[in-house]
Design a protein that fits this description.
Blueprint lengths: L3 E7 L6 H8 L11 E6 L6 H11 L3 E4 L6 H14 L4 E4 L8 H5 L4
Length: 110
């Protein structure tokens, strides 16, 4: 199996983040046990970060990057850099607002 990293930038997504994590997290099974969901959350002024911290307690393959810049572009750069440095074989990016859904991912067939 291959190491899959699902990466997401997040900013003020308290209304969406729990559902997004719950819908995407099970797809980590398509990769090996070192696969990760990594969410960059810097600068959120709502409860996004607190929700992520709570999820990390029960989702051992979830990681938070909280030392990225606030803007979307720097978050993406940090996420991809982290995935590459962690030895990811595949990196899949989606947003944390739920615009894309897991059925659209499984068609890639890794």
């Amino acid at each position: 199996m291959d190491k899959l990293f699902m990466v997401m930038p997040a900013y003020n997504e308290e209304d969406n983040i729990a559902e997004v994590i719950e819908s995407w997290y099970p797809l980590l099974r398509l990769g090996d046990s070192d696969s990760r969901m990594v969410i960059a959350d810097s600068g959120s002024v709502d409860r996004t970060h607190a929700i992520l911290v709570d999820f990390c307690r029960t989702h051992d393959q979830l990681e938070i990057l909280s030392d990225t810049d606030r803007q979307h572009g720097p978050k993406l750069i940090a996420l991809y850099k982290y995935a590459i440095e962690s030895g990811a074989d595949y990196v899949f990016q989606t947003d944390s607002d739920g615009q894309t859904t897991p059925p659209s991912f499984v068609n890639f067939g890794i």
